[in-house]
Design brief:
By secondary structure, the chain is an all-alpha fold. It has helices at about 1-10, 30-75, 80-90. About 65% of the residues lie in helices and about 0% in strands.
Length: about 100
Amino acid sequence: MEEHKKHAEHHKHKAHEHRHTGSKNTNPNMKFWVMAIALALLILISGVQAVELVGLKNKLNNDLETLSVSSKKSTVSTGQSSGGLSNNLNNLPTMVGGC
């Protein structure tokens, strides 16, 4: 039993042994600031992307509205004379693509 106590005393941690492994020059405050700056940059980048995405969405909506209005104005008339359709079919090329 006495031997066990000596062995346990030998393995007790002392205050100076509780240092973290790594560089001795590492300052916990410095790590905090580096992480804070990295987080701020990520938030800033995501904000810029959100603004760009909203602008892109608005432009797409405007383009779709413009396309919708222009397609309503220019409707295709299929009520031509019966000879009009056959003339169009006669003007088609005999071979489209391929050899």
